[in-house]
Prior knowledge:
Shape: elongated
Helix content: 40-55%
Largest sheet: 5 strands, mixed
Oligomer: single chain
Number of domains: 2
Amino acid sequence: MDFIFYPQPLANLISSFARLPGIGPKTAGRLAFYLLQHPQLAEDLAKAISAAKNDIRKCTVCCNFTDKDPCPVCQSARRDRTLLCVVEHPRDVVSLEKTGEFKGLYHVLHGVLSPLEGIGPDQLTIEKLLLRLEGVQEVIMALNPTVEGEATCLYLSKLLKPLGLEVSRLAHGLPVGGDLEFADEITIARALEGRRII
């Protein structure tokens, strides 16, 4: 989109929106103009973004996004501390929690191994995962069923099995190439129930 016809602050706003995933130049322009026509919404959005940026951080235990450290799941005495579910992104924790089926703890990797994108073990939270295994009996791999997700599961399995841990994988009730974020609660619940040992 050619921004030379817009005042610079508006061009900057459109350009910023266009950098978000799934937002093209035309949608970015529509969002920018909508906010200009609704100044209260623009102000509320700016405050919400600022608060999220300032108040949200990674839990020092599970690496999930939280405004309290440790997060409520890690603090809860009602969670089964022998079960640890490894997920790719913080939004995957929300998807699993919506099912009401999983009562253990989580660990968020913040990505998966992807050598082509320069993402190796050091770019993920694998080291923190290895430091929090005391009392854990089973590690459930709840990574998305993609090539990178499968490779990450195999890599982690090779690290965890020698430690005497049972390593399982979600059953493939989830579609290959799909994301946990877009699966419904029943599909995720069945996948949790039908998990298998790797």
